[in-house]
Structures are given as structure tokens and as C-alpha cells.
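Per-residue structure
===
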Amino acid sequence: MTTTRPASQQAFHALIADLTAQIDGRPLDAALDQWLNAAHGAGSTTYEQLRSACQTGVAEGWLCEREGGGIKYGRVFKAEDALHRFSVDVVDMQDLAGPHHTHPNGEIDLIMPIEGSSATFDGRPAGWCVYGPGTAHRPTVAQGRALVLYLLPEGQIQFTKN
């Protein structure tokens, strides 16, 4: 018996594939952060499509299906060629700091405050946040609740004890 993805998950995959095609091969740096926010930032068509797809995925149970330490989370897609070797994780956090980790190859985050919330992620409002290779942080959502989409090159993340 084969398991097929729900249509909404297939559509989400297609949205991510289109986005990762645009960032494939670009350095994960401040210039990419600026470009993502200018081209696909809060209020843009891409942002609204991704936000809607994430909300649908949570409602349907194929996103953020695990829970630990007050965080709902889940890796929805492993790094694959169709996604230009980015994995895709989504977390649902409210007013808390997550586990400290490093990004061997960098990390690209899409911050999506839940309706009515002015939540920030690591001090950043709705939109994109790019961390370069070798960076580390303790991901923190403050001032409300947010969904955060993580794109990790090659799916690489290393959790630390800090």
C-alpha cells in the first residue's frame, strides 16, 4: 500500500520548490536576507501563499505534528533534489526560546506571526531571516505566537547543550 501526500502538501512542496529554485546557489548572507524580504517578504504573494499553506498543513495535521518543550514542530520534507537540497521544517512557538543549535550550512527562516499577534522571531518581525554557515542561536519567539518555516541546506542542523 502506497501513501500519497494530501493535495495541500503537494501544493506546499511545489511552492517551496519554486522558491528554492530562486535561491539555489546563492550565499546565505545579508544580501539574500534583503532580497528575500524585498521579493517575497510579508504582504507579498509568496509570503501569503506560504503562510496559508502552513496554516492548512497545521490544520490538516501534516505540519507541526510533534510536540516537545512547548514547541510543536516537524520536518515535512527531507533535503532532496526537487527542493534544491533544502529540507523543510515548520515550528509553532509562543513566547519561548527553543533549543540552542548551530547551522553548519546556514539557515533560512520565514517568520509568520499568527493572526492578531505581533510576534517576533529572534527580534525580527514577519518576513525572512537568514543565518549564514556556522552560525548558532537559541530560536526565540516573543510577543505572541508564530509559525516559523526553516529551510536548511542539506538538512543540516546540530543541537547543542547550551
The CA atoms of residues 147 and 156 lie 20 Å apart. The chain has a mean pLDDT of 94. The radius of gyration is 15 Å.
